[in-house]
């Protein structure tokens, strides 16, 4: 199920970031942090009344300034508008209507996207008649809010929920393995997809994906069904630059949300980038299976240790994804491309693996014997019992005396014991503490 995108746009200094922070940070219970991605506060997953959506913060739109940095910010915002399912157009109620507001409104009217006009910095909600001037923007009635104080933001979010596209389930068969091909622009995502499909033309159907600028391709091979979600084909010549790099992440997020397994593509010629880490980190946090596909391997000068050195660097840079197998390919020459689906099948088996409760608790008792659980202020953590509650990712519930004593390093130790005994290659493992 694709997660809708809500973009916050407007001229500079109208309180866009304040509204963004209010929605994603004001209610801890409804915020879902995206590791790596949210450090620059550009976008974040949020929830309201049980509905998940991705909120995007943008720089100020100014069409009367030709400064290079302003132009870059404008391109970022325009791409956010193109990607969005709904736009929150923020204006400054205290300052009043400006010519820049009218310029932005003109762009939004031509975008053919649903827009909610948000009048921010309202001080007296009994005097909303003072906002009538904003009707001239042709975007309907302005919604008064005070993002700094959080006033009326709940009503605004209720309106957002009403205007978002209806929830539509994927409808794919349970036996279909959904594969998202993700990564930065120009790492060869489309080339890899074409190479996979070009080996055997056993495609059942090509249908337009629910993700904008993506194509869902159903394929059947060796009696198994796959859905390949391609996030490539997204670059527009007029938008190449920093903005494309930023918002390529959003397209990847949508694909990851709908997938079982991701093919995280990395350019063999370039070093691992922060953007790679952000995209991979999101897939990890979402519990998706993963294969690290290093493309353009044919362009790398090699000796007998090149591959091992490259893997070591990948492991250092993606420390949270030590479990993911690494595959060196050339989508251009189709070198080792045949192994992609083999690894996908293997990872699918691993992420659907279930451990019998008796065997799990035997392993747990042995792990505790080798290394005692942590203690705090004289209190020793006791692990009474464990059970597996789910798959994709494999999820385990540990019943303990004091969940707050559990340290992440001990959880990592238990995870390593699980992996040593049962594998779980290519998939994260989730552990949940419950007080008995």
Automatic annotation (TrEMBL):
UniProt key word Nucleotide-binding: yes
KW Electron transport (keyword) present: no
InterPro entries: G_ENGA, GTP-bd, GTPase_Der, KH_dom-like, KH_dom-like_a/b, P-loop_NTPase, Small_GTP-bd
Annotated GTP 2 binding sites: 183-190, 230-234, 295-298
Binding, GTP 1: 10-17, 57-61, 120-123
CDD domains reported for this sequence: EngA1 (cd01894), EngA2 (cd01895)
EngA-type G domain mapped to chain residues: 4-168, 177-352
GO BP, sorted A to Z: ribosome biogenesis
Keywords: GTP-binding, Nucleotide-binding, Repeat, Ribosome biogenesis
Entry's Gene Ontology molecular function annotations: GTP binding; ribosome binding
Function according to Swiss-Prot or TrEMBL: GTPase that plays an essential role in the late steps of ribosome biogenesis.
Family listed: Belongs to the TRAFAC class TrmE-Era-EngA-EngB-Septin-like GTPase superfamily. EngA (Der) GTPase family.
Subunit structure as annotated in this protein's UniProt entry: Associates with the 50S ribosomal subunit.
Matches recorded under PANTHER family: GTPASE DER
Record protein name field: GTPase Der
Organism, as annotated: Desulfoscipio geothermicus DSM 3669
